[in-house]
Amino acid sequence: MTPDEFRELGHAAVEWVARYWERLPELPVAGSVRPGDVAAELPGAPPDKGDRLEGIFTDLDDVVVPGTTHWQHPAHFAYFPANTSGPSVLGDLIGAGLGTQGMMWATGPACTEVETVMLDWLADLLGLPERFRGGKGVIQDSASSATFIATLAALHRASGGAWRTDGVRGSFAVYTSSQGHSSIEKAARVAGLGDKAVRSIEVDPSSLAMRPEALRAAIEADRAAGVVPALVVATIGTTSTTAVDPLPAIGAICREFGVWLHVDAAYAGAAAACPEFRWINDGLDLADSYCFDPHKWLLTGFDCDALWVADPADLTRALSVLPEFLRNAASESGTVVDYRDWQVPLGRRFRALKLWFVLRWYGVEGIRAHIRDGVALAQRFAAAVRADDRFEVVAPHPFGLVCFRLRGEDDAANETLLRRINETGRCLLTHTKVRGQYVLRLAVGAPSTRTDHIDATWKLIQETA
Amino acid sequence: MTPDEFRELGHAAVEWVARYWERLPELPVAGSVRPGDVAAELPGAPPDKGDRLEGIFTDLDDVVVPGTTHWQHPAHFAYFPANTSGPSVLGDLIGAGLGTQGMMWATGPACTEVETVMLDWLADLLGLPERFRGGKGVIQDSASSATFIATLAALHRASGGAWRTDGVRGSFAVYTSSQGHSSIEKAARVAGLGDKAVRSIEVDPSSLAMRPEALRAAIEADRAAGVVPALVVATIGTTSTTAVDPLPAIGAICREFGVWLHVDAAYAGAAAACPEFRWINDGLDLADSYCFDPHKWLLTGFDCDALWVADPADLTRALSVLPEFLRNAASESGTVVDYRDWQVPLGRRFRALKLWFVLRWYGVEGIRAHIRDGVALAQRFAAAVRADDRFEVVAPHPFGLVCFRLRGEDDAANETLLRRINETGRCLLTHTKVRGQYVLRLAVGAPSTRTDHIDATWKLIQETA
């Protein structure tokens, strides 16, 4: 494809995306396709001769859009938001055009240094403690990978460095609350600890936050049994209900026992952009690593998880490999960062561009306005739920997520309610279980969501109930 | 950013990318920035008020471009190619605009099914054996991650399923040739086996391919010592020299001893698009998993590794997790694929779009022409090297990579030659060590590379020598 051919199709693609965003409010939030419907629309083999993308935009309209769950829809209230935005898409477009493979500083100086600076900008935006400032950050694909990296660094440290050469020898334990994300179990498993290594720590039944005294008891029991406590994962904003674990108390315990503390703020971390939410960082100066996902609530398209470590040498000591074909003068000078040693894969693309574009376009004020909009809409929804006796709000909701259910009804009734709401295609909510009960989750956060989307969704829920 | 604002800036971004591609041949291949130069050009904190991206294209020209190693430059002969192309960038642009998070079928039916079909298209393109056809493929970020996934599935199988719950208990070994990629060591390490678990199998000194009898001896020695042979990684096209391991013999040994065989064809796998290179697939019907990187030599921007497994249940049995908040009717029907259980991270973006765009634009014939161009240019270069008595070609070069050195000169002389060539900015080559000697690597593969780039580079090398 020549640059001129790219210009022509590129302008059409930009127009297609803009038009897609304009049409979004009219589309059903989740497609109504059945399994196999999309695949059936595609030929069984690649074309012999190129078709020069003739008809591609029609195919996108006819095959892809009907088969898409529209995460950017203003009434997509499922899971957590997976924001994207115009500036993010532009940053990705430039990055794709550059085609940089920034595995090392030498293979992408700008790719590396813009990333270092953007992670410092984010640390500034969120008011992170000093220990995470000044080149301590790196982009991972997701919070799952950040947790995995933290697990590896923790194992390396807990084993006195033997892990790197000898592997997992003896028993190690990982601690998280019963509300911790499934990626913590997965990280422990793929790190070779097995699911059994994960201790599910009891939560306070009201706040759903980890009980520090239960953490202490579990650590002490493991030590007494000859198990090495390697890692605690505390959560700021759990996936089920956005519960906030008490970091100061958890951090003190980790210090006392020499356990790596990783803080997973995948969704809620973005809220700290607003001074009124800075309290979520309390105790973060006791953490060894911290992550949140700009690709959730910070207007940056997937994938973009921001991970900070207090001592990046903990990562490089655990993860570095140095085959001859990657040796280069810049790396050996010791004056550059090679992010390949801060992650599991070798290659990496120029994801910092989209952060740069987003932070420039919106500025700190624009980001704060976006977070505050989401929170205000969620509080509006929660107030409406509370005002209707048929419903109850089942957990604290300081951010953009509200968990609620039909009061006094069984799980089946709530499940039916959710199914019927979603079947309308006018909104999409998901569910979880809280204290053993089936509850509905409404997560606000798309930049296009407005008061009328919230009110219309609440009306639909009331009528369906 | 409104759709109209996006249109305006989007058209400017498309123009910037097209213009960048047009300017590439005139740019020095590697920037001449020193460590810290790029970071010094950026403000220390994000702006309070958004700047609406004013001046962003000037900043890209002034800050990013000079700090970029231009992987898409026609004279970028370093490492392996990391192709991108117009259609790939368009596919990424559409994917970024959709903002789909396709962790499960339910959250992205089209994202999932287009991926399944594209992996079948690729299997067709490459002539992969039947065991990898019909929904056996998945996109990973990189071959590193594919190797890691294969390691995990192999451990699960070798442990009789105990690995998932109990972790790494006892001793397991991983085998690869002394020319295997560093990601194999890294995969073993992060899987909790430790670097010591990796057996570096001797190669034939001429072909640099794994010696099957040495593999057999290593497996037998481990078994005798109570170590469980878990995984063999054979390579089609090693990173140093593109050596091709003898799959039929290696596969037979893996069958005999019940060891998982993963085949890493990260770079060279793309060559099988051409019938004259189908021989690289010989023995692949004995493999449990296979991967290659469309983001290397198949015109598809990073990241896009294609991984196939003969039995996808090997992945889901090892990797599945099911928290309540991800339960959904489609998954429970058993009729859909949830790719989250085929990888380590949970989230995923719509990477199949770029494959669809690339395969449609070029067609099978266009892909073949691209591969053949790269091979022909490499052979032209090798012939030129051979015709000059001062140089020697040090390894077989069936694909697009040529390894060569100054004949009879020591490592320092060759290292100096490489440094001086690269300092001109007119081309970029890298190095490796072959049989203990420092050698230069010239890897062809960018779609814009033409005969005159090869000839000019060879002339520069001759003059510098």
TrEMBL record, chains A, B:
Q: Residues where N6-(pyridoxal phosphate)lysine occurs? A: K296
Gene3D superfamilies per UniProt: Aspartate Aminotransferase, domain 1, dopa decarboxylase, N-terminal domain, Type I PLP-dependent aspartate aminotransferase-like (Major domain)
What Gene Ontology molecular function terms does this protein carry? aromatic-L-amino-acid decarboxylase activity; pyridoxal phosphate binding
Q: Which keywords belong to this entry?
A: Decarboxylase, Lyase, Pyridoxal phosphate
GO CC annotations, alphabetized: cytoplasm
- Please name the GO terms of the biological process aspect recorded for this protein, alphabetically: amino acid metabolic process; carboxylic acid metabolic process
Q: What would be one Pfam family of this protein?
A: Pyridoxal_deC
Q: Which InterPro entries match?
A: Aromatic_deC (IPR010977), PyrdxlP-dep_de-COase (IPR002129), PyrdxlP-dep_Trfase (IPR015424), PyrdxlP-dep_Trfase_major (IPR015421), PyrdxlP-dep_Trfase_small (IPR015422)
Keyword Lyase in the entry? The reply is yes
Q: What cofactor is this protein dependent on?
A: pyridoxal 5'-phosphate
What domain of life?
Bacteria
Tell me where the signal peptide lies: none
Q: Which family does it belong to?
A: Belongs to the group II decarboxylase family.
UniProt protein name: Aromatic-L-amino-acid decarboxylase
Q: Which organism is it from?
A: Virgisporangium aurantiacum
Origin organism lineage: Bacteria, Bacillati, Actinomycetota, Actinomycetes, Micromonosporales
